[in-house]
Amino acid sequence: MDTVIKNGTIVTATDTFRGDISIKDGKIQTIAVNIDPGNAKVIDAEGRLVLPGAIDAHTHLAMPFGGTVSSDDYEAGTRAAACGGVTTVFDFALQTKGEGIIETAQRRNKICEPQACVDYAFHVAITDLTPKVLEEFQTAVDYGIPSFKVFMVYKKEGLMVDDGVLCKILKKSKETGALISVHAENPDLIDLRTEQFLKEGKTSAWYHYLSRPEFVEAEADKRAIHWAKSLNAPLYIVHLANKEGMEEVKKARDEGYEIYAETCPQYLHFTSDVYKREDGRNFVCSPPMKGQESQDALWEGIKTGDIATIATDHCPFQSYEKDWGKDDFTKIPNGCMGIENMYPYMLSEANKGKISFNKVVELCSSNPAKIFGCAPAKGTIVPGSDADIVIYDPNKDFVVSKDNMHSDVDHTIWEGTELKGYPVMTLSRGRVVFKDGEFLGEPGWGKMLKRRRK
Ligand code: DUC
Ligand code: ZN
Ligand code: ZN
Question: What are the names of the required cofactors (predicted)?
Fold first, then answer.
């Protein structure tokens, strides 16, 4: 063995127990009550929780978007991930016109591989469904990329697919064992409302919210679920943020359909009121934060198990870029930061008693690992799994500030948020990559995961 984590309280999605963990060659070797470390390095976790590393199944690193490129490249994004206890990052690789699925992932991997500080995978966003791409689904699944994404919005940006294409994709996913994620909002309603607001001179960030309020998202959620049900295809809804959509997910799941919903910490913590703030444009992302009723419904969905995962939609932009939309909300690049905040925020909510620590592990680690095909190597603490481990001090209070974050962005929407408890160490395949506020990893360490869903 190389390392032993001693005296901690191990928390998985299902169990909480005191024990030691030995690590060898990046993998968990043994879990027992008292392991003699011999010459191995000892990490004392007395008074701390020992958790599986989180998986952020939804990021946009170095993504060209909104007239610029999101400010965290693969190095900065995965560095911030490590410092927030995230040991696996799923990024979206956007297909360009005519490009194949594997070709898209390989193009992004050339950029990502030398930069990644933790392990990673790609969901390929399909934007140009040619017959060749449809034929390639099986090859991509067999290659280890069994998850694709489609946007039901962003027509002008060239990312949107229409309902016919969505249905073709869902049908093929059913046949090949792939899982389709959707960004669900209604593009025509957004355009209609935006045009009207601009005509009336209503240009503040508040109108970003009003251009795509609850029902704009709910309609698309219902439509996507309707098509998935009609084809009996599995479906994963990213960044669910509204009550009506939540209800539709619950209904479909109660009927026995394989529908997964992801939400993000920003929807659990902030409401649409943020768009009335002076710095409201910093919170502009799509879908926008919603009202209190929606937030309550998401927390309820967590409790009932109808929210399957938490991820971040991490897509930061600098203040000067957000400022492009000071006088016109349509010019604000859409996206917020969160990769370093997800696990600490959710664990803090558990520490305050809102949900259990096991539930946080389930949402942020075990479920994404299972759903996207990288369990049991990721998402749990068992002999044989990767030693992706977070040591969490439940007594360490922490106030988020741009100065204690590790992203390449000059502000954070989480500024001033008070957290009860904080990660003090992150191990990625047995290597300490974060300790006491300091990043200790290196670019090029992270490996691309090949995945298998079933
Ligand atoms: N929404 C955002 O806010 N940013 C990136 C892409 C998206 O769908
Ligand atoms: Zn999205
Ligand atoms: Zn996204």
Answer: Zn(2+)
